[in-house]
Target: Alpha/beta hydrolase
Amino acid sequence: MTETGIERVRSADGSEIAFARSGRGPAVILIGGAFNDRSTTTALADGLAEEFTTYRYDRRGRGDSEDRASKVAVAREVEDIAALIEHAGGEAALFGHSSGAVLALEATAAGLAVSAVVAYEPPYSVGPVADERVASAERVVELAEAGDSDGAAAEFLRMTGAPAEVVDGMRADANTWAYLTAQAHTLPYDIAVCGSGLPADRLGTIGVPVLVIDGGDSEEALRAGARAAADAVPGARYRTLPGEDHGILRDPAALVPVVAGFLGRARL
Model:
């Protein structure tokens, strides 16, 4: 992959948003989820480089991006994507993973110049799990705002289904835990964008091609959220990738042709 180096755009509130651009062809903005910076989507960008110009960016407050907002709001992150779309030529497709998938759908519903969306496992809480997660989500925000990065990271992982022994294992790996806790102050953005349930009315206003994907080996709660999102977006397609799970970005070989094929057809 040929990368042009770190570039920056200024969002509506003055925050500078850092991104790396690579590839050639129509623009696709790649949006990571919780605990992610622009490095998370590098392998996906590599796979798309022959057909698309990809924009991997640090969501606000992460990596090299600023966050000048006085309070957390989904609208600020939507404005960041708007700035990237403008820089990319005025229109772009969006790929989002996890909470980044929800953000991609929110940006599209907000009326940005989005040509198509691929959303991998947007973690909408549906059914009984929605009520169960509200208290945990509030606790994550409290801990993050208090500056307790360790506590916020652990609570978020538990909220999303990680067993205690898995969290303990992550804590025991100094490099892994340092990376997670360095991102923990941004978790309130992930909590805000995912909300407390499926915003069916907003998703119902989306009028561009949308593909929602899940992994056949992912937890049922994630798969249920993906199916619900696909059902809520008019005309959306839904696809399962057998043998894949929520960690697909570590090895996106199965994902690349699906994303490229859908976005290519969406342009016809």
The chain has a mean pLDDT of 94.
